[in-house]
Amino acid sequence: MKKSLVSRLLAILSLALLLWKPDLAFVGAKNGLLLWGLVVLPTLLPFMICSQVIVGIQAAPLLVGPLMPFFRWVLGLSKEGGYVLLSGLLCGYPMGAKTCGEFLRQGKISKQEADYLLAISNHPSPMFLLGYVMSQLKLIEGLAHPVSVWQVLASLYLPVLPLAALARKVYKLQPEETAFSPRPSLHSSKTLLPHSFSFDKAMMSCVETMVKIGGYIMLFSILAVYIARLPFKNPLIRCSFLGAIEITTGIQAVASSVKGGLAVLLILASSSFGGCSGIFQTRSVMNGPWSPEKESNSGVLNCLSIRHYVLWKLLHTFFTCLCFILSEWTALLL
User: Fold this and answer.
1) Do the Cβ atoms of 182 and 108 come closer than 8 Å?
2) Which of 11, 34, 37, 44 is deepest in the core (most CB within 10 A)?
3) Where are the alpha helices (DSSP H) in 229-305?
């Protein structure tokens, strides 16, 4: 009852804010849709469609094969799990979680491996880091030295290793759960039946996912505009809020308002966490279409936990900050 009442009050408050300052809502919606249409859509949709085709025509093992020694012996992943991780690293939010959920529902990976992968496979893409993040880092004033590309990539991706080691213990991932091919017991009878791949269905599935992502980006961009207008005395608090809500708006605010190494730390932390917008995008795609059963029964076998995901992202953010601080100390010593 309390949860339902809070949801209703938040919905009414949201409507009141939209009616109170419709000009801010318009600016936020426009910013969000421009971000989606000019950055996210052309960056993510082609990769998403290509990934669906690769999976549909059974080409994933060929792509992952050269990297399997690392995926298998270091991370303890199956070939299918290796593809989930690779798609998440290359394509960015929320492709890793989407592929993880699809493979779980299709019986290609076990529940243990899916939980494990959700902890390590959903990250900002290298294109986002090398393009948008690096361009914003160059605008920061008061830096002792420019931030290198390798510092950024290492700070975001090296934490995958300690996270993987910890997640394997938490979810008790056993060697038999990461066989090179899924165990027969993981497949439903429907999965084992031969089926033909439909490019049109795959593309429409990707378009539907992109529409969901665009909707969340628009809504959280509106929220970011309202937060930016709040009279914070300390710009650091305002930037931190914005970074926790939506990463692109937050990163831009940090780069223009905060100076020195603290600004870099906040930008990397925001990129690693993904913001509330990224969490809602992930939640919308990782368990497939909504159903009353999924909403009412938290113990459904093929449902991944968004709460676990958030905890892992917070831990990833901590490791990212730690990696950057260590890289700065190393640079000073050398």
Assistant:
1) yes
2) 44
3) 235-245, 247-257, 260-273, 275-286, 292-296
d(CA 265, CA 261): 6
How deeply is 312 buried, as exposed, middle or buried, from its count of CB atoms within 10 A (0-12, 13-18, 19+)? buried
The model's pTM: 0.82
The answer, yes or no, to whether the previous bond of 94 is cis (omega within 30 of 0) is yes
Q: How far is CA 152 from CA 143, 156, 158, 282, in A?
A: 15, 6, 10, 23
Longest dimension (CA), the chain: 63
Q: Could you tell me the two tokens for 277? A: 């917008």
**What sign does the CA torsion over 46, 49, 52, 58 have?**
negative
The DSSP secondary-structure symbol of 185 reads: G
pLDDT of 198-208, one tens digit each? 888 888 888 88
**Nearest alpha-carbon partner for 178 in 84, 110, 120:** 110
